[in-house]
Amino acid sequence: MLALELFDTSTPAGAIEPRGMKALYLMKKNAKLYADTGGWGFEVFKDNDQTPTLKDMKECFDCHKAGKNRDYVKSEYME
To answer: Is 76 part of any domain?
Structure first.
């Protein structure tokens, strides 16, 4: 399982500090259960809400398809 936490940030005195979670993105590997999405299940949680918000895993997989040679794991720098 992989997780990406996305936070709001501020930069007081030049230091980057987290200011509350914007979203939590999860990927869970299970080739049998998620055969249609490269063996990965996806989920998204917004803010600090514990209720998942993703309607269709293919929404996430469409962006991850290009990374087939890295087992669909994205690891690019994000702004």
So the answer is: no
